[in-house]
Design goal:
Shape: globular
CATH superfamily: Ribonuclease H-like superfamily/Ribonuclease H
Low-confidence stretches: 198-209
Number of strands: 7
Radius of gyration: 17 Å
Oligomer: single chain
Helix content: 40-55%
Strand content: 15-25%
Number of domains: 1
CATH class: Alpha Beta
Distance between the termini: 43 Å
Order of helices and strands: EEEEEHEHEHHH
Length: 209
């Protein structure tokens, strides 16, 4: 008889071309790290995919076939990267029932007047949508938060002081084989938010905007 899968939540901090992912198990009061890894959201064999809307420093790539190809490659490669990770967690004995997605901004790029900032916003939106699409494809609920809002939200959701939460997240990284920097800590905190979401899979939770 197969062993039951261990319930887990996944936190993903979205960057340009990659993401920091942390898998948490345990409970909301005693979480533990099941895995921490870097997920490639763009094909390393196509360097321009890491910043597809950039033609150079501060310069936007012109609309056309080249941009369409890069964006299409990102959507395909990034989605496969995330869905593959979720599948591999399943093979390793985990059931990812929730994903907390962390981004720098959720401002509509069309509302940004500064061309350079708009380019970054377009790329942030693209890579966030890639992770959202992978969550939906995998049948996993998700929520989206801005990184600067995480600590304040955690105080309310976890009913703990910010300093206590910060120290707890720092301790989660002890013994981890790999970096435990700001990206990993934010991913862990996002996953911690998701530990007590209802476990039955029922599609995605609309992202918090």
């Amino acid at each position: 008889m197969p062993r039951p899968l261990t319930e887990a939540a996944l936190g993903i901090v979205v960057k340009s071309g990659w993401a920091a992912a942390v898998l948490l198990t345990g409970s909301a009061t005693t979480p533990s790290v099941g895995d921490s890894q870097r997920l490639e959201l763009s094909d390393p064999a196509i360097p321009d995919c890491q910043q597809p809307y950039h033609a150079g420093f501060g310069t936007a790539r012109a609309s056309g076939a080249d941009l369409d190809h890069l964006v299409s490659s990102v959507r395909q490669f990034g989605s496969q990267s995330v869905t593959r990770a979720i599948s591999q967690y399943g093979s390793a004995g985990y059931r990812v029932h929730a994903i907390g997605i962390v981004v720098g901004s959720m401002t509509d790029p069309e509302r940004i007047a500064n061309p350079h900032i708009r380019i970054h916003a377009l790329e942030g939106t693209l890579f966030r949508e890639v992770v959202e699409a992978a969550a939906e494809q995998s049948g996993v609920k998700y929520r989206v938060w801005r990184q600067r809002d995480l600590s304040g939200l955690a105080v309310t959701a976890l009913v703990q002081e910010e300093g206590t939460i910060r120290r707890a997240v720092g301790r989660l990284g002890l013994g981890i084989d790999g970096p435990w920097r700001a990206e990993q800590k934010a991913a862990a905190l996002a996953a911690w938010h998701g530990r007590d979401w209802p476990t039955p899979i029922s599609g995605s939770i609309p992202s918090g905007r």
